[in-house]
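Justification of resources, computational component.

The compute hours requested in this renewal are based largely on the per-chain cost of generating structure records like the one below. Each record pairs the submitted sequence with a full structure-token output. That output is archived, and it is also reused by downstream analysis tasks.
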Amino acid sequence: MPLALFVLTLLMFGGVLIDSGQRILSRQGNSDIVYYGPARQFGFEQLWQGNLATWNPHIFSGAPFFGNIQSAMLYPPNWIYLALPLGLALNLDMTIHFFLAGLFMSLWCRYRGLSPAGAGLAGALFMFSGSCFLRIYAGHLPLLAAIPWIPLLFLSLEAMLDRGELKWILLGILAVTMQLLAGHPQVAYFSGIAAVIYFGILWARSERRLKPCLGFVAIYAGAVAITAMQFLAALETMSEGTRSGGTRLEFASIASLPPENLLTLIAPFVFGDMTSIDYFGRWHLWEASLFFGAGGLALAALGAAYGEKSLRRFAGPMVLLLVILALGAYTPLFKILYACVPGYSLFRVHARFNILVCLFLAMLAGVGFDQLVKTGAVPREMKIAVLVIGILLAVLAAGLTLSASSGGGGLWCRFLKTIDATGGCFLPASYYQDAAFMKKTGLFAAGQIGIASGTVLLIALLMFVARPGRPLAWGLLLVAVLEVFVIGLRTRASMPLRPPLPAPWKHALEKAAEEDRILDWNLKQANLGMVVGLENIWGYDPTVSKRYAEFMSATQGIPPDQATHKLKFKRIAKQFSMLRCRFVFLPAPEAQVIELPAPMGRLHLIQEVRVIPDRDGILDALAEPDFDPRRTVILESEPDPAPAADKPGGTASIVRSDTDTIEIVAELSDPAILLITDAYDKGWRAVALAGSSQPSYQVHPANYVLRAVPLAAGKHHLRLEYAPRSLAAGKWISLASLLVYLAIGIVAISRQIRS
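The structure output for this chain reads:
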């Protein structure tokens, strides 16, 4: 079983692994790898130099790095980035996690009593299902890394409930710990919801002992304690981000599974394949796909209807419930969950429950295979049902062909216009008004449904004519695995490891001074500065500071209350100068590079202070035509010491700086405000060093998004360091918890050996 899964993995990824010096797994042009790749390179290059970077100066004029849980610096499999070239590490990262997803799924199924072949089938279907495999296409590294630990978690829960042994609690702690460290809290949260439901169902049907419930709590409490260093830092970062306190219902509703996309269970490209034709459905193909294959679905249906009761009775209801959760905002249940379930409002893309749908479908497919081997034949009513479904799909394909060919008034055209009107379609609205486009997409969709119909009819033929028993079972297994494997090959995109540097970035690298920043709003390259060494006043990161997002929204004429981690560039604002922005890269069609005059430097001594305690007042003041950030600084409380207005400032300079610290010397004849044109975060501290006449320093938010330190007259030697309190507390909690976990593990293993 592991060997078969390993061979399938090599067949899928072997060629790309060999070519890792030139190409990496993902799709060029619309992939999150443009964020995660630079982040991995930046973080692990810093770690190689002995610095666990807590601050990233390259996006948003500076932003938390370690506190962004997606940095995943403590996730053990990611340590390959320390030892291997970036291209090989990225490809090996994805390859390993796909293999682990299949392996752990098969181990869970083996524990549940499935045969090696049935468990292996379940593993292959899970790892190559659309909800998992398309993560490569999208470049979702942390999400992909969190997936394999889901079946391991479910294995530990079932074993703990059945046997009550300590080792299964320890295994559960390991699974959840790895999920949290992998860097995708949404997967951990969604799988936690599924785990609560599944464990509750199993517990209700058991002897209802208290011990397993305590074990369940211990799994999550232990994992949170071990990951406290990462977890607490992430919570603190989130508390300052745009999602603090939850998101608006409209935002949380984004990318629920569109009901029509249930067709992708057996027709993965019914709404486009992103190669021969752009995806034209709602949201994104990689989020809205539920592809499992007709063969796998037929076996899953057989398992759900006729499989051994002890194996199937819980999996079927879990599939139905998880589909409802994946549909998200398209069901009335969503608003109730949004309002009542803690944490539910923090996330969008509830279509990602698809991953768990495929998990339980894969188990049912394995059950169905074993049932077929055991009983020897498919029940007559199921044969007829499969045949009827195949015929109906053929009729649908024919009808869709006629509808698409009938012009703008056909049913297909009305359908596309209807889904476009609901919002969230992948392509611009103009596409859905183009008759030629409507016809093209309709014919394409008809072709995809026709292929699905042919596959279903082939399965029906196998059921009717194949010899009952193992020949039929292995025939269906082959169809099921080939389906997902072939579709996987079609979507296994790769892109150059080092795409050509965009011309605007080349221009900036040639002309920018050390302190200059750029503005690039293009989400496909916004984080490129982490690789080339430039600092961007924007970027792409879901944990962007709420302060900073509100400020940038205001500069673009967008109400600050509507600020999210994604903004569109509308105009060049005068406030950009105080962010040290020198170059603005205009989006297409202009695609120009505009050089802004006289950006501010990194340090300024300012005597004129305005105290404005509220956000809107500060943002309005910054927008005033006569406001000069070189002469006046806006603080939110009275500084101590207060500067002496209209007095000479003195001098200030940087002695040393790295990602997380700035060492400054200054000499002033009168008190002043030291303005540092880097983004503010409450985790920044100022420490007095030897030779400083001022015993202590305070870091204030200045001009809403920058940092300020009040200085008295005299000599100063201070160090600003990014040292969130959560990080200091978290590392000791993590260390102590890890030692306790290892000690308990050693004792448990020793007892196991002795027994």
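The two ends are 28 Å apart (CA to CA). The chain has three domains: 2-264+284-377+468-495, 503-595, 603-609+629-723.
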